[in-house]
Amino acid sequence: MSTDWLQRWPGLRRDEPLARHSQFGIGGPADMFLRLDELAVVAELVARCTESGVPLTILGAGSNALVLDGGVRGLALRLMTKDLAVADGVATFAAGTMLPRAALDLAAAGWTGMEWGIGVPGSCGASIWGNAGAFGGDVEGSLVECEVVAPDGTTRWIAGADCAFGYRDSRFKHDLSGHVVLHGRFTVVADDIATVRARTHAVQSERKRTQPYGVRSLGSTFKNPPGDFAGRLLEAAGLAGRSHGGARISPKHANFILNVDHASAADVLALVHCARDEVASRFDVVLEREIVLLGEPASDAVAAQTAP
């Protein structure tokens, strides 16, 4: 693996703690780290990483991804471009655009269709990758197409219908796993501004009422099992408020884990492991993790807990 070319890249940081770049505030160091404000150079960067054998990890906002304590090998890349434009009933977001901000900006301009995005505290690129959704809406139901960079640096647009979206799933987790999302185009409809803003206010109010707000949260920890809700099962198992180290299962919604006191990724994984075992033991339901794990554990002691 040759990194001489990368060492000269403007803005490159070595041994950068990724806790600084995550809403959750947890994560070991990246060997190398870049924040990019210009999407035009992403294709070149991706292609050169592929050619030189540098592992590449794309970071979103860190609202549903847990960076492990051992950190990330190779290059961790954070796309910061937050452009938003609307034309002919289609809203185009750059990869770094935060969905809640975009939804509010669209509502203020009288565009409806993205109100569900207020409940997704993540970036456009990461949300497309994981088919994020909340309050009855998701990426699959709104995405027209997305622009992506392939490992060889070529770019193309992929129709939303060709992304093979599933429940918190897409082709970008499978056969397109080496691709990087640059833009997403979403369907919106012109509507009365007051009416749209009333809907966004209702979504905001419901989020604040039902989910932890104003604290460092990892988002939904587990996927909902068929015909049930992970939060209900976790609460029925008496797990709400359970703590380990600096991490705590939210007393308000047990499917959220909070960073309450400088938690480590190992603290969080201990709670994930405990919660999954407790629900399986009591209700014979094996919950599937929704949070994404990035990087490596600090030791073999927690490696077993990183299993799906």
UniProtKB/TrEMBL annotation:
Keywords: Cell cycle, Cell division, Cell shape, Cell wall biogenesis/degradation, Cytoplasm, FAD, Flavoprotein, NADP, Oxidoreductase, Peptidoglycan synthesis. GO terms for biological process: cell division; cell wall organization; peptidoglycan biosynthetic process; regulation of cell shape. GO terms for cellular component: cytosol. The active site is at 168, 220 (proton donor), 290. It comes from the Bacteria. Pathway: Cell wall biogenesis; peptidoglycan biosynthesis. It is found in: Cytoplasm. Pfam families: FAD_binding_4, MurB_C. Its EC number is 1.3.1.98. Its cofactor is FAD. The keyword Acetylation does not apply. Transmembrane segments: none annotated. It catalyses: UDP-N-acetyl-alpha-D-muramate + NADP(+) = UDP-N-acetyl-3-O-(1-carboxyvinyl)-alpha-D-glucosamine + NADPH + H(+). Residues 26-198 form the FAD-binding PCMH-type domain. SUPFAM superfamilies: FAD-binding/transporter-associated domain-like, Uridine diphospho-N-Acetylenolpyruvylglucosamine reductase, MurB, C-terminal domain. It is an enzyme of class 1 (oxidoreductase). One of its GO terms (molecular function) is FAD binding. Belongs to the MurB family. Cell wall formation. This is UDP-N-acetylenolpyruvoylglucosamine reductase. It comes from Candidatus Aeolococcus gillhamiae. The lineage of its organism: Bacteria, Bacillati, Candidatus Dormiibacterota, Candidatus Dormibacteria, Candidatus Aeolococcales. The gene is murB.
